[in-house]
Write a structure and sequence with these properties.
9 helices, 7 strands, alpha/beta
Amino acid sequence: MAENLRLQFGRLTIDDVDDSTCRSQQAGHYFTIMSNYSESPLDRLWKEYGGVFRSWDDLTLARWMAQTLGQVEGRVWRLSYSLFGAYRLAAQLAHDRQVWFKRLATAPSAYTEAGCCRAPLLPLFTRDVLETGLVCQHCGETCVAFDEMPTELQDGVRQWAKTYGPVHAVAHWDDAQRKRAGDYDSRFEQAATEAEALLAVAGGQIVPKLLDHYPAAIWEDQDECLEVRPEDIEV
């Protein structure tokens, strides 16, 4: 079970998680995870944050989300940006209510329909992109599988992800691996520094290329397992 959950600047940060929890979080299931902690203070806090959206009717919710999509169009965004914490809360509620099925508001024309849930396609790039592809910000599922990404991007994305994987894995070394490393603390710090550089490459060089194919894109700008925070990454 995850321990030391904390909320910072509109993002969920989890310390001391196992690899499976780590993967499910960064694949976009930020709020699905919290359903496993229905009595936790963090879950109650997120419910409080989401209260403003629950008080809205479906039309108001749909209009706010459509307007927000128009405001973020044409740019690459950090996942830690506070607007997206609010947007994910609204998106989860809209998904539960099937707001986009009701066609109450029209999303900006640049957004196509996501095959996973038929909401406007707003993709999230994560470190597990080879396994999860691009992740939908409305339902948390894969909206664009890796092999369905534009072919001219696949080689660069594949190389980046295969480089990042072993770096991230340092956080999950078992006792035998840590012992073989000698000074594990130093190796951990080295991995964190490498992760910062690689995430900066993702946010500054790889994800912007998605704008040639999608109206907006989001990238995960932290690695909670290596204790890399958004403020550590300079793009």
